[in-house]
Amino acid sequence: MAIQLSGPPPGMPGARVDVRLLQTRSRAMLAELGYGDSELSIALVDDAEIRRLNGEWRGKKRSTDVLSFSLLEGEGTRHRGKLLGDVVISVETAARQAAARHRGLDEEIGRLVVHGLLHILGHDHEHAADAKIMVAEQRRLWRAVG
Length: 146
Prior knowledge:
Layout: E1 2-6, H1 19-32, E2 39-45, H2 47-58, E3 66-70, E4 83-90, H3 91-100, H4 105-120, H5 128-145
Parallel strand pairs: 1-2, 2-4
Antiparallel strand pairs: 3-4
Helix pairs in contact: 1-4, 1-5, 3-4, 4-5
C-alpha cells in the first residue's frame, strides 16, 4: 500500500506536521478498512489553495478543512489502478481547529484523513441517519489507528 503525500507548503506558520506519523496512520487506516493493497493521495495545502478547490469543485468560495476526491466513482474509475482518490487538507484550518479543540496538529490532521477517506469510500453526512453511521465509523477507525 502506498501513501502519496505532498505538502505542507514551505514556510507555513505552524506547519510542523509529522509526515512519517501521518503516513503510518494512513496505511493503518487503509488496512483496517480492508484496502491494504490500495493507494491514497494526501495533499497538505494552505487556506488559499483549499478555498480555490472548494470553489472550483463544490461551488463554495470559502476555506474548509478537508476535501475528498474519490476515484471509485465517475468517469476515471477504469483508469485509477490502485489509487482510491485524493484527500486534501488545509493545514492552516487544521491548526486553528486543533487549537480550538485542544488537540495536537498531528491528531487533527489524522482525524481529517479519516473523515476524507470515509468520504472517498462512499460515506456521507448530508442526512442525519447517514451522519450517525459516518460518525460511528470515524470513531471506530480513529480508535483503531490513533
